[in-house]
């Protein structure tokens, strides 16, 4: 997740790992200690902030936290159904030795698992409202 607060953009370390990239002119190296302590990396460089604000692969914290628990649960159910469908297709591909050629499905599954994890974090926060995520 990402969250802009006082001209500092915080990005969850798991989202950075999911992307597998560091934005241009990143100020990440100076913030390593912050990552270990808080689970999110702050970015102050305008180019880094712009990069992450334009990144559609990372959910915006404020957008998700504004959803009701029922809406999040509904989204999780849809993701679970998609995961089941993709895994079922994967199983069939393994049986026919086509799995190695199906990179698109692998990326889709990775994205679905990441979305599921993000939504579960938000849902848990709503249930235990005292803990701040970002």
Mean pLDDT: 78
- Order of strands side by side in the largest beta sheet? 1-2-3
Low-confidence stretches: none
Describe the global form.
flat
Q: Could you state the order of secondary-structure elements as H and E?
A: EEHHEHHHH
- The Rg value, from CA coordinates, equals 17 Å
Distance between the termini: 8 Å
Give the biggest sheet: 3 strands, antiparallel
Q: Which structural class should the secondary elements be placed in?
A: mainly alpha
Number of domains: 2
State the share of residues found in helices, binned by percent. Answer: 55-70%
Number of helices: 6
Strand content: 5-15%
Number of strands: 3
What does this structure look like?
- With 134 residues, the protein is mainly alpha-helical.
- The protein has two domains: 2-54, no CATH class; 61-127.
- The chain has six helices and three strands.
- It has helices at 13-19, 32-38, 46-54, 61-65, 69-96, 103-127, and strands spanning 2-5, 8-12, 40-43.
- It has a three-stranded antiparallel beta sheet.
- Strand 1 and strand 2 (8-12) form a beta hairpin.
- Helix 5 (69-96) packs antiparallel against helix 6.
- The mean pLDDT is 78.
Task: Write the topology of this structure.
Elements: E1 2-5, E2 8-12, H1 13-19, H2 32-38, E3 40-43, H3 46-54, H4 61-65, H5 69-96, H6 103-127
Antiparallel strand pairs: 1-2, 2-3
Helix pairs in contact: 5-6
Task: Give a quick summary of the entry.
This protein is mainly alpha-helical and 134 residues long. It has 2 domains: 2-54, no CATH class; 61-127. The chain has helices at 13-19, 32-38, 46-54, 61-65, 69-96, 103-127, and strands spanning 2-5, 8-12, 40-43.
């Amino acid at each position: 997740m990402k969250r802009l607060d006082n001209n500092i953009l915080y990005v969850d370390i798991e989202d950075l790992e999911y992307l597998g990239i560091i934005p241009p002119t990143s100020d990440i190296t100076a913030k390593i200690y912050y990552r270990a302590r808080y689970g999110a990396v702050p970015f102050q460089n305008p180019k880094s902030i712009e990069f992450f604000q334009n990144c559609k692969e990372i959910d915006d914290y404020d957008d998700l936290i504004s959803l009701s628990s029922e809406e999040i649960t509904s989204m999780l159910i849809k993701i679970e159904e998609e995961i089941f469908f993709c895994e079922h297709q994967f199983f069939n591909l393994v049986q026919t030795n086509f799995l190695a050629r199906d990179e698109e499905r692998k990326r889709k599954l990775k994205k679905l698992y990441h979305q599921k994890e993000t939504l579960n974090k938000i849902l848990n926060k709503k249930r235990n409202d005292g803990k701040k995520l970002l």
